Amino acid sequence: MCLRKRNGYRPPDRSNAKIYTGPVPTERESPMGRSDQSPSRAQPGRTTQRPNACCFCWCCCCSCSCLTVRNEEERRRRRKSQETRMETIPNCEACTKPTMEEIRMWAQSFDKLMKNPAGRNVFREFLRTEYSEENMLFWLSCEDLKQEISKSSIEEKARIIYEDYVSILSPKEVSLDSRVREVINKKMADPTPHTFEDAQLQIYTLMHRDSYPRFLNSNIYRNLVQGSSRTSSES
Fold this sequence. Notes:
The chain is mainly alpha-helical. It has 12 helices and no strands.
């Protein structure tokens, strides 16, 4: 009998035995692996909130509104509210059809043009093509203010003129120098019919020197002269 059997030795069960392959090393993570791990990978059950989009991108998420678009919309709303404000004077002065003599007189001097209601309307039409109609509107508003006698009406019209044509926030602001603006600001404490007299003279001079020469060479005035000459010759 084998000595192993007699001493109670039993061979190991090789069917359930595990093969020893040596010590299993612990899994190590590289620093780059840990830093690149996203929160969604670390916690699969949670969803992370998308960061706000940049203000210069075309697409924005619901939690971000582009500052450029927001400012542009604000400017549009302010411009629309100011443009829909009631004008201090009618859109066009009531006048009769100018004669050929009157039309020709407009070319003699700027004063003759501005003293004629039909001439002012035609000149105002020209200024509209140059996007400077506010100069004529301001001048006419000042003329209208000079006709007022009531204290309350003077204060109300002076305030409207200031907000529409002198304030830097108005889209119809006229070009005035700092000296004239300072004078207006002082006079607005107690406005009179002549509060904007210096400013009116400055705008009148601006239209005379800058816009009036181009008006005489414009198609608007030339067509008017040719039309009146043709009408007079036919009659």
